[in-house]
């Protein structure tokens, strides 16, 4: 059995991470009625008691934030029992939504400490297969220090797979510098990650609204209000439902799905190291767009049960996708449809004639497809616009030790190159590619 | 004489387990005492406690499947695997042939060789090796190729008969065609003969002949095991002078693989039906053989949808490569194995017709017949045909074509390069398989 370690950085990273741990614990508690430490648990949890009975479980996680609010909130919340303060790394003042502060200032100051915590986490693993890094792209700590952690992981653990879940800001994000931060972070993701699962906050908002519409039959917005969707972490986490929780549950579900075959047994299991192998045909094009169906398992809603084949086609529609770009008419470089539940090969090969128990089944799609470039292009145009009109913000970055203009321009050209690569592939789609001429054999 | 089965990867370990089980239960229920004991000697050994242990070694780079197969055997309570006859690691090869062949294989070479050597020492006389594996994943295909190479080196005068499961045409491992091409090209240099089952074909047998609704790998593997058992259980051969043959693998190889360019063997068995319809059916040898012959020449892999229009071309007409559907399937060599009631009265002249063979081998050399009066695996009469013909040309050509198209854009090559398999290595493999395709086309 292999293990994975989750590294959650910044406000967003830690909030999403905690939703994951909460849901994962519930899922295991549901399956593991006897409360015994088993193989399934061992992939993400460490047993700290001697006997087989569960009294003390540690999530294999490292929690990093450059302010204390969110992490302190966790220490006071329901999950306080499971974490150990040695897993935390915090500072007090935050990165002020500035990538350079996170990446360079804090990155240099905390480098040794971070590596130390990562090594400690790795030491507890019998066979470490994967690091899951979770952070936002818009703030300073997640995007800056998070991507610094990514390159530290590459240096320290070159053979361990690095999968990043990155939350992209919505167009009306109230962090004004978020496009800068995103572009600077993108270059790091393109160069150092094995796979990136991009998630746009706008898509999460849309899905949450849709769910609440379905559940209440009232106007959307009753669950999640626009103005609450974008906050800068104030550490004001009350023990009740928090503004991002509904959105973060969706991302946590995505992580639950992707890790489920590592956590549970099954005859059609997919190993985590098979994801990059099958879905990344070219090294830099490793952005895998996630989709989830059915959505209503996320909320407690009674909606007519769905058949497996319906779920499959839903998975390919825009509404179920976690980024905004429209997948229609796009070129799929590769995609993997993952199904959880009681299904056999036959169901996956042919449309299933009988409805499968919907409570048991959910599907989850990862696509490496070209429309992602639309999102990247939006990001780029924002940046160019910002560079022209808000020159004033730049000095906040350029003041930071080690930061200079060239890092900006290199990041932009890295993004340009990435867009070009997708664009180039998309252009080949129009021509129906004939079979490549085969090798001929001299007789 | 004994056969050592080498189970590799998920597929190999699942198929291998079913194979041992079929061999065992057939031998136990068989009417003939000698048949039973020859069969047992071939595939099982007695421990000092009198229990039966399979002459098999289990190899995978992850532990789950091996554990599962060992438990399954143990639970059936009739036979089991040797307690130390397995080798596993913690993490699979991630669907990457190069990882299996260049990393895992060499790294564990000593342990793997030792494992096989111990099993060989248990045999009074070794008839040969039967490595069982899929070609689409990373461990079976990559480590399997490596282990086959080790067997060749360590036992230069023993027979090695590889059993391969070919992947579904679509929908599983994206890099399956690359892995298949690399495996086949290498095995072609190493093994004496290559027995192939295609998952698509076996799947159709399960749904159309056995009427199974929700088909699992378990169902598919039972069919494969049944067909393989039909080949490998004891028979009387022309060389065995009225007793059960002692050289099952060697005689199979010399009957079918007489030329180093032609090593691909397909298998079909009739009848195959659900046990409920078996109760209402009677079989006659003439009808069975008539069907089987038409299946052979029309390249229909199961007893349904046989194209009765296909006829051997007139002797004068030149033969052409037959990639198209509905055309005549030319054989190089065939081995017909008949088991069951009245087997000595069966008339097999239709298989000795020179019109179904290539012109350069006389039918008396191209055709072999093995018989056993003992009904096999609950079928009163059963006929299995192992054929070295153009039957696998089309699926092989599809595999190479799809892999070549992917190779044209160099997609995924970096994943192999990482483990030391370069573009050059790919080109070599493509070249040698194009050669095989050309040779079979010209039969
Ligand atoms: N989905 C989601 N997005 C969040 C969450 N918290 C913040 N964000 C988004 O993340 C971006 C801001 O980044 P944060 O994660 O708050 O910032 P940080 O990494 O803590 O960095 P600093 O606060 O600058 O130190 C904005 O786009 C927010 O909309 C969350 O819990 N869930
Ligand atoms: N017939 C049959 N095919 C199987 C079975 N299990 C897997 N396969 C096929 O095998 C291929 C995948 O290879 P696996 O055997 O799972 O891979 P592996 O050898 O374990 O290698 P890695 O998991 O990549 O390390 C696919 O084509 C599957 O259809 C099985 O039990 N029976
Ligand atoms: Mg913050
Ligand atoms: Mg495997």
From TrEMBL, chain A:
Per UniProt, which keywords does this protein have?
A: Cytoplasm, Cytoskeleton, GTP-binding, Microtubule, Nucleotide-binding
Single GO molecular function:
GTP binding
Q: Name one GO biological process term.
A: microtubule-based process
Tubulin/FtsZ GTPase domain sequence ranges: 42-266
Q: Where in the cell is it found?
A: Cytoplasm, Cytoskeleton
Q: Where are the transmembrane segments?
A: none
One Gene Ontology cellular component annotation held by this UniProt entry? microtubule
- CDD domains documented for this protein: epsilon_tubulin
Primary place of residence?
cytoplasm
PROSITE patterns, alphabetically?
A: TUBULIN (PS00227)
Concerning its family, UniProt says: Belongs to the tubulin family.
Q: What is this protein called?
A: Tubulin epsilon 1
What organism does this protein naturally occur in?
Answer: Cyprinodon variegatus
Whichever gene encodes this chain, its name is TUBE1
From TrEMBL, chain B:
Q: Which GO terms describe its biological process?
A: cell projection organization; microtubule-based process
**By its UniProt entry, which CDD domains does this protein fall under?**
delta_zeta_tubulin-like
Where is the protein situated, by its record's location annotation?
A: Cell projection, Cilium; Cytoplasm, Cytoskeleton, Microtubule organizing center, Centrosome, Centriole; Nucleus
According to its UniProt entry, what is the function of this protein?
Answer: Acts as a positive regulator of hedgehog signaling and regulates ciliary function.
Cross-referenced PROSITE patterns:
TUBULIN (PS00227)
The similarity annotation says:
Belongs to the tubulin family.
Q: Listed GO molecular functions? A: GTP binding; structural constituent of cytoskeleton
Q: Which SMART domains match?
A: Tubulin (SM00864)
- Please give the InterPro entries that the UniProt record associates with this protein: Delta_tubulin, Tub_FtsZ_C, Tubulin, Tubulin/FtsZ_GTPase_sf, Tubulin_CS, Tubulin_FtsZ_GTPase
Report domain Tubulin/FtsZ GTPase positions.
40-239
Q: Which UniProt keywords apply?
A: Cell projection, Cilium biogenesis/degradation, Cytoplasm, Cytoskeleton, GTP-binding, Microtubule, Nucleotide-binding, Nucleus
- One Pfam family from the UniProt entry? Tubulin
Provide one Gene Ontology cellular component: centriole
Q: What is the native source organism of this protein?
A: Cyprinodon variegatus (Sheepshead minnow)
Q: What is this protein called?
A: Tubulin delta chain
């Amino acid at each position: 059995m292999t293990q994975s370690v989750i590294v959650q950085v910044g406000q967003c990273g830690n909030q999403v991470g905690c939703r994951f741990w909460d849901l994962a614990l519930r899922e295991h508690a549901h399956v593991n009625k006897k409360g015994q430490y088993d193989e399934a648990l061992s992939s993400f949890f460490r047993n700290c008691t001697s006997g087989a009975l569960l009294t003390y479980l540690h999530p294999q996680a490292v929690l990093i934030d450059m302010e204390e609010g969110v992490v302190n909130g966790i220490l006071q919340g329901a999950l306080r029992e499971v974490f150990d303060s040695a897993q935390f790394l915090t500072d007090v003042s935050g990165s002020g939504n500035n990538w350079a502060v996170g990446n360079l200032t804090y990155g240099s100051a905390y480098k040794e400490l971070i590596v130390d915590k990562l090594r400690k986490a790795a030491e507890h693993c019998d066979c470490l297969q994967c690091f899951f890094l979770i952070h936002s792209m818009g703030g300073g700590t997640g995007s800056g220090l998070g991507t610094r952690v990514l390159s530290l992981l590459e240096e320290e653990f070159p053979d361990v797979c690095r999968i990043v879940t990155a939350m992209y800001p919505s167009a009306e994000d109230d962090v004004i510098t978020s496009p800068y931060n995103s572009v600077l972070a993108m270059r790091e993701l393109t160069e150092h990650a094995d796979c990136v699962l991009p998630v746009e906050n706008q898509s999460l908002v849309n899905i949450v609204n849709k769910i609440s519409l379905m559940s209440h039959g009232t106007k959307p917005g009753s669950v999640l209000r626009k103005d609450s969707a974008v906050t800068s972490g104030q550490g004001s986490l009350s023990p009740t439902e928090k503004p991002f929780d509904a959105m973060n549950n969706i991302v946590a579900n995505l992580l639950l799905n992707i890790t489920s075959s590592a956590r549970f047994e099954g005859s059609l299991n997919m190993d985590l190291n098979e994801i990059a192998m099958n879905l990344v045909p070219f090294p830099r094009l490793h952005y895998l767009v996630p989709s989830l169906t059915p959505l209503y398992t996320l909320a407690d809603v009674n909606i007519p049960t769905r058949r497996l084949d319906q779920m499959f086609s839903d998975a390919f529609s825009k509404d179920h996708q976690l980024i905004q770009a429209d997948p229609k008419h796009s070129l799929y470089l590769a995609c993997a449809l993952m199904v959880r539940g009681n299904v056999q090969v036959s169901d996956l090969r042919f449309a299933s004639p009988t409805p499968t128990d919907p409570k048991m089944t959910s599907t989850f799609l990862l696509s490496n497809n070209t429309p992602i470039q639309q999102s990247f292009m939006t990001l780029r145009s924002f940046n160019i616009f910002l560079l022209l009109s808000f020159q004033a913000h730049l000095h906040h970055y350029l003041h930071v030790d080690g930061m200079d203009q060239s890092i900006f321009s290199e990041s932009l050209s890295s993004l340009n190159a990435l867009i070009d690569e997708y664009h180039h592939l998309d252009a080949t789609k129009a021509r129906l590619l004939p079979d490549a001429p085969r090798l001929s054999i001299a007789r | 004489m004994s056969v050592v089965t080498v189970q590799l990867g998920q597929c190999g370990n699942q198929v291998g387990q079913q194979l041992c089980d079929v061999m065992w239960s057939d031998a136990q229920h068989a009417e003939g005492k000698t048949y039973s004991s020859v069969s047992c000697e071939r595939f099982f050994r007695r421990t000092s406690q009198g229990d039966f242990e399979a002459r098999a070694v289990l190899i995978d780079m992850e532990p789950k499947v091996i554990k599962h197969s060992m438990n399954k055997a143990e639970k059936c309570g009739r036979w089991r695997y040797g307690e130390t006859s397995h080798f596993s690691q913690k993490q699979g090869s991630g669907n990457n042939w190069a990882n299996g062949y260049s990393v895992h294989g060499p790294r564990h070479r000593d342990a793997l060789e030792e494992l096989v050597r111990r099993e060989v020492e248990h045999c009074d006389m070794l008839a040969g090796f039967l490595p069982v594996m899929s070609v689409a994943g990373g461990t079976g295909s990559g480590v399997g190729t490596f282990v086959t190479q080790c067997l060749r080196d360590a036992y230069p005068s023993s027979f090695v008969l590889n059993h391969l499961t070919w992947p579904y045409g679509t929908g599983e491992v994206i890099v399956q065609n690359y892995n298949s091409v690399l495996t086949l090209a290498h095995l072609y240099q190493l093994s004496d003969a290559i027995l192939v089952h295609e998952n698509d074909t076996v799947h159709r047998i399960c749904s159309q002949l056995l009427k199974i609704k929700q088909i699992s790998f378990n169902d598919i593997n039972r069919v494969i095991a049944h067909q393989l058992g039909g080949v490998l259980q004891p028979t009387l051969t022309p060389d065995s002078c009225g007793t059960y043959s002692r050289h099952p693998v060697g005689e199979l190889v010399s009957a079918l693989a007489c030329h180093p360019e032609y090593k691909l063997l397909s298998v079909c068995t009739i009848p195959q039906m659900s046990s409920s319809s078996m109760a209402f059916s009677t079989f006659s040898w003439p009808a069975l053989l008539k069907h089987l012959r038409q299946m052979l020449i029309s390249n229909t892999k199961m007893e349904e949808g046989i194209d009765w229009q296909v006829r051997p071309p007139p002797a004068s007409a030149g033969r052409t490569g037959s990639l198209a559907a509905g055309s005549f399937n030319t054989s190089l060599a065939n081995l017909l194995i008949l088991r069951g009631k009245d087997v000595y009265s069966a008339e097999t002249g239709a298989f000795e017709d020179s019109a179904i063979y290539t012109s350069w081998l006389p039918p008396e050399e191209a055709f072999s017949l093995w018989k056993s009066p003992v009904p096999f695996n609950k079928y009163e009469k059963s006929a299995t045909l192992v054929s070295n013909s153009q039957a696998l040309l089309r699926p092989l050509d599809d595999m190479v074509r799809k892999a070549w198209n992917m190779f044209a854009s160099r997609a995924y090559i970096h994943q192999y390069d990482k483990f030391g398999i370069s573009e050059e290595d790919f080109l070599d493999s493509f070249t040698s398989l194009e050669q095989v395709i050309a040779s079979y086309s010209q039969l």
